[in-house]
Amino acid sequence: MQTQSDEKIETLKKKVKGQIVLPDDPNYNEVRKIWNAMIDRKPKVIVQCAEADDVLHALSYARENGLEISIRGGGHNIAGSALCNNGVLIDFSHMKAVSVDAQNRRAYVEPGATLGDFDKAVQAHGLATPVGINSITGIAGLTLGGGIGWLNRKYGMTVDNLVSADMITADGRKIRVSEDENTDLFWAIRGGGGNFGVVTQFEFKLHPVGPEILAGLLVFPINQAKQVLQKHREFVKTAPEELNIWVVIRKAPPLPFLPENVHGKEVVVLAIFYAGDIAEGEKLIDPIRSFGDPYGEHIGVQPYLQWQQAFDPLLMPGARNYWKSHNLTELSDGLLDSIIEFARKLPSPHCEIFLPLMSGAVNRVPSNAMAYGHRDVQFVLNVHGRWDEAAQDESCISWAREFFNVSAPFASTGAYVNFMSGDEDGRVAAAYGANYDRLKQIKQKYDPENIFHNNQNIKA
Ligand SMILES: Cc1cc2nc3c(=O)[nH]c(=O)nc-3n(C[C@H](O)[C@H](O)[C@H](O)COP(=O)(O)OP(=O)(O)OC[C@H]3O[C@@H](n4cnc5c(N)ncnc54)[C@H](O)[C@@H]3O)c2cc1C
Q1: pTM score, whole prediction
Q2: What is the pLDDT of residue 73?
Q3: Ligand 1: does its nearest atom lie under 6 Å from the Cβ of 82?
Q4: Residue 81 beta carbon below 6 angstroms from any ligand 1 atom
Q5: Residues of the chain with pLDDT under 50
Q6: Quick count: other Cβ atoms within 10 Å of Cβ 313?
């Protein structure tokens, strides 16, 4: 006998153009998987949208049945906010199209596109915009939180390059947000995460980049970490904005250019990226080699697209992850000492400390121009707790928390919401700092019932 709830599902199936996946379906467990293997939630209904109207049907269905909602772009959010238990998952993994207007340097991007989908489409025209460093991350969540990557110093955050977005609001209206339309909402979504509605298309500004750039890794022993990091912080103060260098501290993976006896030892990696004239770049980066006595290097001219995937092998889905993060306006000696202390007690071969370099164009935007307001930030300290087995949960989470606490006195204000874990609810107001009050007002206007709460939640 068909129940009332079966009938409602049948009606939903008829309305949506995409697929409905239910707990009894053979692909349910595969479809509900997200990047962080620690998150295991079971939505009641997964709506794999094929077009914007499918979002409207999913929202109505959730509302009529009193179900909560979560939204998945690329499924990379560390807190696992893409997944809810017993609710409706609005899944964009079938909406990945990227269309490029090369003449006007614009890209129109569906919300299920990964950074790899985006880069591939825009690089076909020799164009790019700043996005993150792992090609399987979703462009949707990354953009809505801010967007940090190799091109930030030259072209700003991903949000600084967002021109407009098509959205569906909590009350089921389809609207466009831009500098000219629904400007308060456009302000809020540029950093305010998924709090304000569902984005069904992003429009980005593009810039000529590559297709070849100069990039690669320089690997130093951990016992040279202090001098390498001190020289790094001086060097980047005057470096041109085409250059970006991220510091990665971890146990050395078995990279072929490193001697075998270095594999598994703690190392300081300078990941170098230069998107200007190659000959000038070669000259510019040469002094970096003498920051210490490197174990090895692998630097060369390569396609931008290839470099955009360089970190993929270290960041594949399926591992357990717990991340913590601080904003930094400087790399003080005290912080360097803490970094070195915790680098010497990495609890798993996959745990790592990332120090993205910000500055440049990121700092030229006024801090109240949009929700992402950390415009004094010079570096971000990103503590990646990452491991394979549940038995290691306690040691790896404790390491990340302890390091986060010890390094807190050296941090500046605010936090990048896209690097926050699922237990940082109490930190959301502080993360947004001075922009939080305005975000609350806009939340009250567009989502007074807080139906979009599976995120770093702004409570009106
Ligand atoms: C391996 C890895 C590497 C990373 N590297 C970087 C990096 O280099 N730079 C950087 O800035 N960040 C980076 N991040 C962080 C990343 O920006 C966030 O995890 C981001 O949330 C990922 O977006 P997503 O679409 O994949 O996430 P999802 O988990 O799919 O979504 C996260 C949240 O975004 C919101 N959302 C998603 N889609 C929509 C939509 N269409 N409409 C409205 N709200 C939506 C929802 O609230 C959702 O819960 C990285 C994360 C990982 C795991």
Answers
A1: 0.97
A2: 98
A3: yes
A4: yes
A5: none
A6: 9
